[in-house]
């Protein structure tokens, strides 16, 4: 173990010649806005910090390193990345993409020493440099003491979040906590990695300090929308400590502690997660307003600042007009635009195509399995009501499929027309009935399913790529209750774990469980948090990804029967396609540091399994 290093960021780890994209710092020459002016003006201080929020796009997009500006969908901070994280898990097939091959290569186990899809290194260290400067300079500012404390606490929260995003990818990384001058020593300019445990401990200690000193807001109001509160700091602690506990319990220590956490510390981290989750429950609660359970679950993500929302990426309620050419009222090329069914501006949508296995994970209301009898359903003809009746209401709020109501019509995935003589027509029409439905994307129908979560049917902005007013949730209480359940179970508090899971199930509108075990907790997490960016990281921290992410997945083909209006069904085996079946290898539990970074800094050790 070694102490946290100080570092001069301009020469750090391959960041040679990398310039900041922070607007305040880019206003050259300095006689326009001097260095002192920034730290003496509360407006400029807030502008500086706002750019750091923007740079921490990893809070809502797990592949931000792939994109450089917000002008296009595949470059947006709130766009394709939140689709890709679903597609590399066992949740969905990539239906279309700017760079489909990158997703498929990664999913097939093609992560190499050159890096890949979810890189998060250069940008966070650049942002951390700016945050370190902010944390050091603002306390000396002449602005109000309360404002200084609040803003520094926010900066520390952002810095910790950046480190959390790194440690869950790479294991131990260099911890940089202060800005540095040009004349630092070799060891400080080219630091080695801290241990994985040290990084997690730093994150938890930072959250404890800003929570205990009450530097952050207690509640969200009109004057601090989108800023982290005390409970957002507790939520980061809840999540990070749970990850650390899982790694200690299920992982192994490697590279003298650079990777892994001693198993003896699992209980400690679970206890920290448990305590943080309990504290959040004193302020936040499950959203349970609408009698209709489908509507209620949808509204968790659509009703702004509701009781379940702990931290959200905020967007204005009233985006500017499509015709004005000014889209600053919302966000461009967002997640909801990508996922919605037709009608959609690109004639596409349906970016993620959920697997049949993900669909089957949703139980029936009475708690019985949602798995289909795949032999039976491929015999005879079926209505969609016969297929999906009595499913968990979260299914209808999370997934759309054949005959899902949307904007006054029905989503139409039918792929083929069964004629009166029993033959299948695959193009054209018969007696005025089209052989193919309208929900085709790139001449295909994906898996027969799409993602409904976050979609607002009343929002016309889904018909245009430029604007959307939907917030994106960073932390919500549903996750925290599941964190509590998992931590409580691993601590032996099975009664409390069962109660927490059943709170989630009762809100959803399905039968409570009578007993609890680890698999039931994980199953509930898969369903409740589907398509929110958790699943991929969960199966990695539980160390079950080698099994879970190395299986072929299926889709469902609906063939419309001309005479009855029912559907003949076909299971689409290995729907990802030949040669692109998922594969996850043991060494993929950690990303490569990459050849370029270790080449620029000889003190960085590469992770096991990645050879030149």
UniProtKB/TrEMBL annotation:
InterPro entries cross-referenced by the UniProt entry: SusD-like_N, SusD_RagB_dom, TPR-like_helical_dom_sf
Any one GO cellular component localisation term in the record: cell outer membrane
Domain SusD-like N-terminal as annotated: residue spans: 115-241
Keyword terms, alphabetized: Cell outer membrane, Membrane, Signal
Compartment(s) of residence: Cell outer membrane
Domain of life (superkingdom): Bacteria
Pfam families given in the database record: SusD-like_3, SusD_RagB
Signal peptide stretch: 1-23
Listed Gene3D superfamilies: 1.25.40.390
Keyword match Magnesium: no
Major subcellular location class: membrane
Family membership noted in the UniProt record: Belongs to the SusD family.
Protein name listed in UniProt: Starch-binding associating with outer membrane
